[in-house]
Amino acid sequence: MEILPTTSWQDLATKADLQQMATQLKAELQTEFSGEFALIRSEMADLRGETANTRMEAATNLRMVLATQLGTFLALFGLIASRL
C-alpha cells in the first residue's frame, strides 16, 4: 500500500461517473460514425450507378461486336453458297 499514490475518496470514480462517461462516449461515437456511415452509403450508391452504367455499355458493345461478326459470317456464308 505504500507504493500507491496518496489520493482521497473524491479522486475515485463512482459508478455514476462511469455511466455518465459511457453515455457521453456513446453519443460522441454515434455522432462521428453516423456521418462516416452516411458518406460510405453515398459512395456505395455512386459505385452502384457507375457499375450499372459500365454494365450497360459493355452489353451494348458486345451486341455491336456480335452483330458485326454475324454480318461477316452471313456474308461469307452467302459468298460460299453462291460458289457452290
What structural class do the secondary elements suggest?
A: mainly alpha
Supply Rg.
Answer: 35 Å
In this structure, how is the largest beta sheet organized? Answer: none
- Give the distance, in angstroms, between the N- and C-terminal Cα atoms: 110 Å
Query: Can you give the helix content as a percent range?
Result: over 70%
Multimer state: single chain
Low-confidence stretches: none
How many β-strand runs?
Answer: 0
Task: Calculate the mean pLDDT score and round it.
Answer: 90
Count of helices? 1
What pattern of helices and strands is seen along the backbone? H
User: Which descriptor suits the 3D outline?
Assistant: rod-shaped
Give the strand content. under 5%
Summarize this, please?
The protein is an all-alpha fold and 84 residues long.
Task: Describe what you observe in this structure.
The protein is mainly α. It contains 1 helix and no strands. It is rod-shaped and about 110 Å long.
List keywords for this structure.
single chain, 84 residues, 82% helix, rod-shaped
Topology (SSEs and partners):
Elements: H1 15-83
